[in-house]
């Protein structure tokens, strides 16, 4: 059976996911077969496995860092918020239905057998399991029946490293307060603390490190500097959303309240001279070179939000290419019908930019795909013949009578291209063609595009995982961490 180490945080976005990914990579580099695990993930960024099962992207990133194939065993429970009080509940990669928070809180203990079945299967296959918690273990209103923080640590008998975020201030209060709100058995599981996102000279921090060790009776295993990596983010607190810089080629992504799979656009950020801005009001749109409507977990509500705040009108008036992915693609059509009440029921007028009608279905489409662009028009016409790969994950079926935009290897026809408006259900469709799209935008703008370099996202990710691992390895006491894993301390 595998040995385990658990990464918990003092709060959301403290850096649990990235530290877990780094450790997965370090263990791989050190010759161990490692795997990530998160019993319950709440996120709108998800992924489809080869088996057609849905899981959180954070564990996909960690699996990639570990050099192993993503498996739904690594994330048996995924919650995808549909509104402020409820989520779609996905267990072992399959949709179970929607639940409000109160009902799920009462129900979740019934999922412990599913959690432990998945964990035990992983444990039979790997040397080290890197478990990630969620939020904070010191949420005293949620500690009862916990299945993702200390509850999971107990079930796996895992030692815990507690991560605090110094960039947002108050890191010593975060660490001390978290430890002090735990009971004695839970405190005994915390074998080390990590201060994350530090900027400056560690020597200035040294007196504080000594004091927090004395106060908590827990060693500080390291101080990890603030770093920038081209690695997928997990949640809506992503710093990518705060970028407002306009570069030579400017891409504006509409930031829906229920935006999902925004990692689709990270590839553009890897190209010199390109800015990706997430906009949520008309004043932020400006004069971009392309507008993207991303995926959404509540397509109709996000369409109405865009209509009410004027973004829809601004998008329709724009003269640049418009590209919709998944939910954003559905919005571009003429009508969305929800007779089965998948979201809110009824029907709503679409943006009318593509000759297409969508009907929501209770059955979710989940499949890995690859294909080729065909019948492309307008600015992106030169994409014709370009291959791509990705995955579909949606609840709707769209019908159109015009030529399809992409032909998939499974025989399906996907998407529409009409003038400078484009739409597709395929997440990840830009990964292999972002450079060509940027060249098209440069040509339209009269800018020299010869310096745009092709990007191999797989190679880029490998380099970034190694770079992350190098930084974290240098920052942490790995000898102590291995002793913690082996329960020698």
TrEMBL record:
Belongs to the CobB/CobQ family. CobQ subfamily. The active site is at residues 326, 427. GO terms for biological process: cobalamin biosynthetic process. The lineage of its organism: Bacteria, Bacillati, Bacillota, Clostridia, Eubacteriales. Keywords: Cobalamin biosynthesis, Glutamine amidotransferase. Pathway: Cofactor biosynthesis; adenosylcobalamin biosynthesis. This is Cobyric acid synthase. Residues 5-226 form the CobQ/CobB/MinD/ParA nucleotide binding domain. The keyword tRNA processing does not apply. Pfam families: CbiA (PF01656), GATase_3 (PF07685). It comes from Hominilimicola fabiformis. Catalyzes amidations at positions B, D, E, and G on adenosylcobyrinic A,C-diamide. NH(2) groups are provided by glutamine, and one molecule of ATP is hydrogenolyzed for each amidation. Residues 250-432 form the CobB/CobQ-like glutamine amidotransferase domain. GO terms for molecular function: ABC-type vitamin B12 transporter activity; catalytic activity.
């Amino acid at each position: 059976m595998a040995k385990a180490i658990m990464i918990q945080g003092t709060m959301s976005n403290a850096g649990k996911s990235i530290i877990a990914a780094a450790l997965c990579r370090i263990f791989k580099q050190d010759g161990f077969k490692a795997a990530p695990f998160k019993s319950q993930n709440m996120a709108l960024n998800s992924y489809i496995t080869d088996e057609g099962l849905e899981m959180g992207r954070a564990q996909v990133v960690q699996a990639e860092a570990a050099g192993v194939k993503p498996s739904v065993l690594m994330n048996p429970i995924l919650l995808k918020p549909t509104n402020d009080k409820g989520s779609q509940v996905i267990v072992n990669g399959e949709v179970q239905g929607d639940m409000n928070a109160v009902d799920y809180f009462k129900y979740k203990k019934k999922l412990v057998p599913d959690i432990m079945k998945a964990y035990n299967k992983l444990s039979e296959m790997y040397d080290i399991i890197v478990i990630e918690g969620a939020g904070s273990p010191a949420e005293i209103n949620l500690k009862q029946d916990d299945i993702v923080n200390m509850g999971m640590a107990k079930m796996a008998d895992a030692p815990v490293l507690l991560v605090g975020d110094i960039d947002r201030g108050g890191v010593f209060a975060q660490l001390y307060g978290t430890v002090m709100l735990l009971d004695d058995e839970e405190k005994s599981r915390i074998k080390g603390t990590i201060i994350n996102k530090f900027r400056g000279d560690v020597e200035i921090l040294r007196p504080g490190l000594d004091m927090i060790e004395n106060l908590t009776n827990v060693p500080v295993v390291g101080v990890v500097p603030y770093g920038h990596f081209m690695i997928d983010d997990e949640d809506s607190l992503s710093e990518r959303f705060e970028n407002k810089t306009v570069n030579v080629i400017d891409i504006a992504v509409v930031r829906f309240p229920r935006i999902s799979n925004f990692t689709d656009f990270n590839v553009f950020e890897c190209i010199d001279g390109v800015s990706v801005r997430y906009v949520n009001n008309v004043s932020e749109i400006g004069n971009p070179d392309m507008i993207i409507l991303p995926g959404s977990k509540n397509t109709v509500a996000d369409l109405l939000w865009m209509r009410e705040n004027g973004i829809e009108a601004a998008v329709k008036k724009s003269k640049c290419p418009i590209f919709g992915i998944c939910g954003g693609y559905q919005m571009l059509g003429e009508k969305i019908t929800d007779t089965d009440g998948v979201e809110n029921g009824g029907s709503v007028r679409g943006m009318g930019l593509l000759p297409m009608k969508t009907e929501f279905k209770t059955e979710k489409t989940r499949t890995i795909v690859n294909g080729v662009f065909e019948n492309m028009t307008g600015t992106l016409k030169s994409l014709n013949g370009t291959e791509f790969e990705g995955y579909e994950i949606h609840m709707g079926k769209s019908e159109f009578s015009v030529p399809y935009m992409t032909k998939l290897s499974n025989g399906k026809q996907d998407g529409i291209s009409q003038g400078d408006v484009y739409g597709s259900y395929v997440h990840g469709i830009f990964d292999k063609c972002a450079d060509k799209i940027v060249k098209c935008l440069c040509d339209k703008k009269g800018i020299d595009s010869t310096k745009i370099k092709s990007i191999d996202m797989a190679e880029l990710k490998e380099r970034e995982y190694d770079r992350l691992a190098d930084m974290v390895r240098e920052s942490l006491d790995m000898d102590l961490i291995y002793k913690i894993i082996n329960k020698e301390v």
